[in-house]
Amino acid sequence: MFRALGDMVDGMDALSVIKGSLCMACGESGDTRMMTTKIPFFREIIVCSFECDTCGDTNNEVTFGGEIQEKGVKFVLQVCDEDDLSRTCIKVHAPI
């Protein structure tokens, strides 16, 4: 089958490959690759990549992994014009 997320291989996070994942574009099967890793001073993330050999559709995403934080922070973004929507926001939290 595939390795559990987070397993280490030669000191690196293991890459899990899930064969036969449903392609949302054509309905055939493709391959999903997943890997967890920790970003220092941030948190654990899951990096996913999908590719369909039939139609060539691809999808890449990064999602949060690990535990849900006990406390949260509220961020407010003020959008003044359309250009503000085409930006990437990155939150950096460093220890005090």
What does this structure look like?
- With 96 residues, the chain is mainly beta.
- It has a domain at 8-70: Single Sheet (N-terminal domain of TfIIb), CATH 2.20.25.420.
- The chain is 0% helix and 39% strand.
- The strands form two sheets. The protein has a four-stranded antiparallel beta sheet with strand order 3-4-5-6, with no helix packed on it. The chain has a two-stranded antiparallel ribbon with strand order 1-2.
- The radius of gyration is 17 Å and the shape is flat.
- It starts with 7 loop residues before the first strand and ends in a 32-residue tail after the last strand.
- 4% of the residues are buried.
- The model has no long low-confidence stretch (mean pLDDT 80).
CATH architecture term of the domain at 8-70? Single Sheet
Q: Overall pLDDT, averaged?
A: 80
Low-confidence stretches: none
Q: Give the amount of beta strand, in percent.
A: 35-45%
Q: Into which percent range does the helicity of residues fall?
A: under 10%
What shape does the CA trace take?
flat
Total of DSSP H or I helical runs spanning 4+ residues: 0
Q: What is the CATH C-level name of the domain at 8-70? A: Mainly Beta
CATH homologous superfamily descriptor of the domain at 8-70: ZPR1, zinc finger domain
For the report, how would you describe the main beta sheet?
4 strands, antiparallel
| Helix/sheet category | mainly beta
Strand order of the largest sheet: 3-4-5-6
Radius of gyration (Å): 17 Å
From the N-terminal CA to the C-terminal CA, the straight-line distance is 43 Å
According to DSSP, the number of beta strands is 6
Secondary-structure element string: EEEEEE
